[in-house]
């Protein structure tokens, strides 16, 4: 479905803003460890991804749809065991408190869901809410395509009960840049919804600039009118 979404979005290229505010490269670390996720941690990874997407799409807020979403995520990762290597997790007090999910290729995962469970999960849902969910995920897939030597941040999510959200998000974004250096990427990018001012400022604080605007009807954009593509060049050490 992702390829069809190109007919429903208008993309505007934005001149690079050289005055974008940048923080220092070093982020204070209050005892938090960042590492790659492991296969046996998939349940926790799925739960945190749910928390990340729930903020964009309240349609998934109730418990029945959470189970459907997390099952879909786990099926996706299990279809390609190497995908878990693209997830960075933040450990604090011996618990995964946050994650950064990244994408380095356009290889799509194959997720299979039980049709009966799917029917039960969306039973009673409004047609508009269901269509917005389907179209928004399709558009997200289309806009997250990566070019050669490019990485894409799909989601940065922190446990809502964690009291170190700011520190963890900062460390995860810095670690994402380090991972891109290790993989010899030249650019890293992400998309931020128009209404998410806080997240846009978060990326700008680490040197990301607004490269493009993607405009579409709200049904394709999680109820918003569009999103920004934030990107940053990755410096490679000799």
TrEMBL record:
Known SUPFAM superfamilies for this protein?
Acyl-CoA N-acyltransferases (Nat)
Give the InterPro entries listed for this entry. Acyl_CoA_acyltransferase (IPR016181), GNAT_dom (IPR000182)
Gene3D superfamilies to which the protein is assigned, alphabetical: 3.40.630.30
Annotated ranges, domain N-acetyltransferase: 32-235
The domain of life for this entry's organism is Eukaryota
Q: Name one GO molecular function term.
A: acyltransferase activity, transferring groups other than amino-acyl groups
Write the protein's name. Answer: DgyrCDS3202
